[in-house]
Amino acid sequence: MLKLPIYLDNNATTPLDPRVLEAMMPYLTDVFGNAASRNHPFGWAAEEGVDYARTQIAQLIGCDSKEIIFTSGATEGDNLGIKGVFEMYAQKGNHVITTTTEHKAVLDTCKHLEKIGGRVTYLPVDELGLISLADLEAAMTPETILVTIMYGNNETGTIQPIREIAAIAHKHGALFMTDGTQAVGKIPVDVNADGIDIMAFTAHKMYGPKGVGALYVRRKNPRVKVTAQMDGGGHERGMRSGTLNVPGIVGFGKACELARLEMAADAARLSVMRDRLQTELMQLEESYVNGSVEHRLPHVANISFKYVEGEGLMMGIKDLAVSSGSACTSASLEPSYVLKALGLSDDLAHSSLRFGLSRFTTDEQIDYAINHVKEAVTKLREMSPLWEMHKEGIDLSKIEWAEH
Amino acid sequence: MAYSDKVIDHYSNPRNVGTLDKSKKNVGTGLVGAPECGDVMRLQIEVDEATNTITDAKFKTFGCGSAIASSSLATEWLKGKTVDEALAIDNMEIVEELALPPVKIHCSVLAEDAIKSAISDYRVKNGLPALELAHH
């Protein structure tokens, strides 16, 4: 029996893997100590749990466990990485390079830097959501201290050419940071092979708990330091004060271990399901895949259905939990800035749906999603004057609309 | 966002979806809104010229559930009304009937505009001056 509604919004957050919860439980009950308490067994037990998790996390991304700084999530990691580098390397320069399709945690942090004397270059992306390496090369200056470009995009799943980007940054003496939120745990990410100096990521996108994340900060070749953004007890090698969220960290560790062991099989299975979903939905006329199909996270598909309005579409697929490129539902009429950066018109951006599959997604759920979306799009198009005009061969861009 | 039962009913079972023959002299067509704004409504009326009564009304709407419901409701109300009675329909009556929240009031305004625009088109086709349409 299929349980409704079906959750296909796993880029927003994933459910907690029961095995992760099991690992966390003792730390929510008996092992309640403060990992910073050095004088008694309660603290030691908590610290042991944290140390083990640090190793599990480090193994997933191929780093040393000392290079993991625990945070409250990727937003904090992005803030700490960017602001921390800006402060620490102020003597070297004040220029940061990023892209227009970053998460707000990066974009708004960069905007903050601009207010305090920083200079930021926002690289554009092409119609597939990819940056141009030539643009990056051209933007590098002697004052460039940091290039921060996300690994995989949260809306489209597009994967940037990380290794090439890192090489360019390093050639010009800048550090390379990436927001690995959507990529870590889904595809192989190796900080050394990829040339990553700093990376923010989070547990709740990979079947771990909410409220815990990590910032990877390279310790050699080069040794990177970031200025703490929170003052206090000097935890996490002085880079992030605050009592560690021990149960969250233990869960994060378990989630990383599971990802390391199961990622390849999950990705293979999910990409087949995702491709089937996409192929079926692309049978609807005037539907478009947003972002790169070639360079894409295995569990993501973002598809626009022309001549259908986004909020109406969401209402028509109420048994599916997905995200829309239309922000109408949040009372603002602004369509997704990520899709607009790809060159989509407002109406096409409004009518997009983002599907994010998970380890727990079943073929039966995908079948239901396919039928549900097809029915809703077809029904709404039958009701749409724009669809009728399109069918009559009328060029909608030539009409003078009575805007209100 | 929570939709009222009436909005859900009109969205799920829209009344009078369709197209009337716009080349006919007694058919008035109103097309309002814009794709970039996320709402386009096309509302059509067919008028019995002898009695000045609306005998049929059809709509097609590109928009959210509230926009679809507002236009669906408008066609229900239009049928059987005289043109003058139709002109008196106020958007706030639609807001009340559908229990639209403040952020969706523009949907009702658009439906009122569509009614007036259709009537104006009918008038022009029959040698009467166009209505002065308020622009919101």
Automatic annotation (TrEMBL), chain A:
SUPFAM superfamilies from the UniProt entry: PLP-dependent transferases
N6-(pyridoxal phosphate)lysine PTM positions: 205
Any one GO molecular-function label of the UniProt entry: pyridoxal phosphate binding
Subcellular location as annotated: Cytoplasm
InterPro entries, A to Z: Aminotrans_V_dom, Aminotrans_V_PyrdxlP_BS, Cys_deSase_IscS, Cysteine_dSase, PyrdxlP-dep_Trfase, PyrdxlP-dep_Trfase_major, PyrdxlP-dep_Trfase_small
Keyword annotations of the record: 2Fe-2S, Cytoplasm, Iron, Iron-sulfur, Metal-binding, Pyridoxal phosphate, Transferase
Catalytic center residues: 328
Binding site for pyridoxal 5'-phosphate: 74-75, 154, 182, 202-204, 243
GO cellular component, one term: L-cysteine desulfurase complex
A GO biological process held by the record: [2Fe-2S] cluster assembly
Keyword Transferase: yes
Pathway this chain belongs to: Cofactor biosynthesis; iron-sulfur cluster biosynthesis
Major place of residence: cytoplasm
Domain Aminotransferase class V: 6-368
Reaction catalysed by this enzyme: (sulfur carrier)-H + L-cysteine = (sulfur carrier)-SH + L-alanine
Matching NCBIfam families: PRK02948.1, PRK14012.1
Function in brief: Master enzyme that delivers sulfur to a number of partners involved in Fe-S cluster assembly, tRNA modification or cofactor biosynthesis. Catalyzes the removal of elemental sulfur atoms from cysteine to produce alanine. Functions as a sulfur delivery protein for Fe-S cluster synthesis onto IscU, an Fe-S scaffold assembly protein, as well as other S acceptor proteins.
Family membership: Belongs to the class-V pyridoxal-phosphate-dependent aminotransferase family. NifS/IscS subfamily.
Entry protein name: Cysteine desulfurase IscS
Gene behind the chain: iscS
Automatic annotation (TrEMBL), chain B:
Keyword annotations of the record: Iron, Iron-sulfur, Metal-binding
Gene Ontology molecular function: iron ion binding; iron-sulfur cluster binding
GO biological process, one term: iron-sulfur cluster assembly
InterPro entries: ISCU (IPR011339), NIF_FeS_clus_asmbl_NifU_N (IPR002871)
Highest taxon in the source lineage: Bacteria
Domain NIF system FeS cluster assembly NifU N-terminal residue range list: 2-126
Family from the record: Belongs to the NifU family.
PANTHER family linked: IRON-SULFUR CLUSTER ASSEMBLY ENZYME NIFU HOMOLOG
Family annotation (NCBIfam families): iscU
Function: A scaffold on which IscS assembles Fe-S clusters. It is likely that Fe-S cluster coordination is flexible as the role of this complex is to build and then hand off Fe-S clusters.
Protein name stated in the entry: Iron-sulfur cluster assembly scaffold protein IscU
Originating organism: Hymenobacter coccineus
